[in-house]
Amino acid sequence: MRRVSALAVARIALLWAAAIFVLFPLIWIALASFKTPGQLNDPNLVLFSPTFESWQNVLSSGILDAAGRSAIVGLTTVAISVVVGSMGAYVIAKYRAGGTATRFGMLAAQVLPPAVLVFPFLTMAYALRLNDTLVPVIFAHLSFVLPVVTWFLIGFFEAVPRSLEEQARVDGFSRFGAFWRVVLPQVLPGIGAAAIFGFTLSWNDMFYGLILAPGKAAILPVAIAGFNTFRGVQLGSMSAAILIAVIPVVIASFFIQRKLVQGISGGAVKS
Fold it and tell me: Where does residue 150 rank: exposed (0-12), middle (13-18), buried (19+ CB within 10 A)?
């Protein structure tokens, strides 16, 4: 009994240590956003009078417009990914389409470095005169969000009993009607989690945005990098901008944590 208690205490202590290790950078960034440039130069300063100077600078810099563009890119990417990915995941889960090669092949974009894929997107953007717009960024984000959403949903469709679809066909539904009216409602929680996960991937991407839309159509991560000026890094303003980018991701992660584990493991090949 005493040994079990000691293990429990050690486990709690380890969890607290891990939590502090993970949260420390976020706490440091939050405090830095309320410090003056002079206070930021003193790493040992703990107690200080907070100032909103950095937040005023960030809010007047157009960062919210960049956040809006990131939201447009993320929502558009997720909408396309959910529609196409749910149908693809359904076919793979129910009809074993493509076999094991298809399941793992769809993740090829995750294995390849983004630098390999960005050149074709950049060439097409210039050819179509769409450079420095959100269109090539959306297509680039589809290259890694769509496969992940599809992979994510395979396990949820496999969990739906085949008898439900067969009963719907007996009741007179077409194949698409059985999918739309019976199967799809069963996986709506998984689709919601996949959408939030895909939006988070798109929201956090900086590489494609920096190459494909570095100017007037800059998305949020690119705008945050803009606080690294020729006069040095504006740490206070950059910290405030990072908080604006992080808060939606933290809130979304809190709501999808259980479905996230289920979706990632559910896409694996089952015997």
Answer: buried
Reported as half-sphere exposure (CB side, CA atoms, 13 A), residue 142 has a value of 16
Angstrom distance (rounded) from CA 203 to CA 73: 8
pLDDT tens profile 236-254? 889 999 998 888 888 877 7
Name the amino acid, one letter, at 211: I
Backbone angles phi, psi at 97, to 5 degrees: -65, 130
Helix (H, G, I), strand (E, B) or coil at 233: strand
Closest CA to 266 of 160, 151, 184: 151
The strand pairing partners of 232, in sequence order, are 229
- Rounded to whole angstroms, the Cα distance separating 205 from 109 reads 14
pLDDT of residue 219: 93
Give me the amino acid identity at 94: K
| pTM, entire model | 0.82
- Spatial neighbors of 22 by CB under 8 A, at least 6 apart, are none
* Segments in the chain below pLDDT 70: 1-4, 43, 98-99, 109, 256-271
3 state SS of 228: strand
End-to-end CA distance of the chain: 40
| Per-residue pLDDT, 67 | 92
Question: For 98-206, where are the alpha helices, taking DSSP H only?
Answer: 99-105, 108-111, 114-127, 134-158, 162-170, 175-178, 184-186, 188-204
Predicted pLDDT of residue 270: 47
Q: Which letter, b or e, does each residue of 17-43 get, where b requires 16 or more Cβ atoms within 10 Å of its Cβ? A: eeeeeeeeeeeebebbbbbeeebbeee
Compute the distance between CA of residue 251 and CA of residue 259 in angstroms, rounded to an integer: 14
Q: 153 near 194, Cβ under 8 Å?
A: yes
